Amino acid sequence: MCGIVGLFLKNQELQPKLGDLLTDMLITMTDRGPDSAGIAIYGNDGGKPKITVQSDDPETAFRGLDAALSDALGDTVGMRVIDTHAVLTLPEGTEPEARVFLAGKGIRVMGSGHAMEIFKEVGLPEQVAARFHLRQMAGSHGIGHTRMATESAVTTLGAHPFSTGADQCLVHNGSLSNHNQMRRELTQKGFAPETQNDTEVAACYISSRLAEGASLSEALEGTLQDLDGFFTFVVGTRNGFGVVRDPVACKPAVMAETEDYVAFGSEYRALANLPGIESARVWEPEPATVYFWER
Amino acid sequence: MQTIDLATTPLRDVNAALQAQASRTNQTEWVIENPKGAHAIAVGLDAPIEVTVKGSTGYYCAGMNKQATVKVTGSAGPGVAENMMSGTVVIEGDASQYAGATGHGGLLVIKGNASSRCGISMKGIDIVVFGNIGHMSAFMAQSGNLVVLGDAGDALGDSLYEARLFVRGAVKSLGSDCIEKEMRPEHVEILRDLLERAGADAKPEEFKRYGSARKLYNFHVDHAGAY
């Protein structure tokens, strides 16, 4: 199984409530994925690049990390610690150097970008949401996932969303059958996945296509030709939100759109408490059809 | 009329109350409020009662229905009226995948669209869809009637047995061993009756009939040596 939720706000006035709305949607999908949960949230675009990092021993790993990284980069680094994660605000252009520094310290990078922050952990969605104070988060759009693992171990790194490019993230319900072949091809192109997880391969595939100049829509179209298996994907970019289902479409999906938002849920239950859902246009996304919204 | 609020009453209690109705109950009208996409609402009923669900339902609404009439004012999730035996299920909105799957009898009416695998392995149920149906509908359908006022998706009636398929709109593609067949007077009569019972505004003459070519499932004496 696995549960997916997504919310793309069209009405700016709802932005302070994004975390609250997404948290309710995420918890509703607990019985589709009680192993782990995660969320990618796009907000707080302060103009500087950010890296979200994770450590199993945050007290030790994050103590003095901002000062040490500031020294290494020769400029001030900001740090906001939230449970096992920390969001580092970097001077422009220093991300590659920062990644080398963090790798040397054994600190995992969850994702990076100007707008996106990623939080994911093993545990029930309600507990994960509480640990990261997801309800208090504001933003323009966000994607969440509740995981019931099939293709790789129940670990923090195996949880969704996966981010393999700046401000890009992907969540997946399903299982891919050609991910080993695709992993080899992507590695040759310089987009090597870090884990054995099939979903990360899909995220790397989309990142590679975007890096080659494809639009989000073209990259999503490409999954239909190049990825084999079952999938409903929801992807986020700095200003966009996309959905695609494989041609067999046995993994469920429901969407709703009002003047205020576009919402995605694995089931209607996830959408049932959204404001104005009674008058929303609610539909099931067609198989092998790309949907995306950009602002 | 009995009204139950799913926001305050556990689903198991709701289903237990509905399942406890005897065939001669005088509590014949039930309303369920606040379904909010819950799974398995009004399943396993076996009494001539009428249940109206005010809103949209999740997986398997009205599954295994016998005798009862279940109406959903919103849309229904996957597997609505799965394995229905008799009675009537009416969905005012859309239905998700495998609506009416394996149904043995009764009438399922979907006033919006139905998605993929509608009527898969149907065994005697009648299904009337006012809108379109998705791919692989009526896969291995054995008996009963599937009536579609709109269009049908890919691979309609793949590996079909003896179910009758009536489609008014376009068929994207026919599945293996499914062919268009002549509409004879008896088929027009079957269709007229179904359209009338479903309350559908359509004329039987506007439809085409599809059925099994009987090349896939029938024993063919020329192939005896292969067995």
What does this entry look like structurally?
The complex is a heterodimer of chains A (295) and B (227). Chain A is built from 8 helices and 16 strands. In chain A, a hairpin with a 2-residue loop joins strand 9 (162-165) and strand 10. In chain A, the strands form 3 sheets. A 7-stranded antiparallel sheet of chain A has the order 7-2-8-1-14-13-15, covered by helices on one side. A 5-stranded antiparallel sheet of chain A has the order 9-10-11-12-16. In chain A, strands 4-5-3-6 form a 4-stranded antiparallel sheet, with helices on one face. Chain A is 26% helix and 31% strand. Chain A is of the alpha+beta class. Chain A folds into 2 domains: 3-45 and 120-294, Aminohydrolase, N-terminal nucleophile (Ntn) domain (Glutamine Phosphoribosylpyrophosphate, subunit 1, domain 1, 4-Layer Sandwich), CATH 3.60.20.10; 46-114, 2-Layer Sandwich (Alpha-Beta Plaits). The model of chain A has no long low-confidence stretch (mean pLDDT 95). By secondary structure, chain B is an alpha/beta fold. Chain B has one domain: Pectate Lyase C-like. Chain B contains 2 helices and 11 strands. An 11-stranded mixed sheet of chain B has the order 1-2-3-4-5-6-7-8-9-11-10, covered by helices on one side. Chain B is elongated. The mean pLDDT of chain B is 96. Chain A binds chain B through residues 247-250, 252, 254, 267-273, 282-284, 286-287, and chain B through 36-38, 56-59, 75, 77-78, 93-94, 96-97, 115-116, 134-135. Chain B: It comes from Paracoccus versutus.
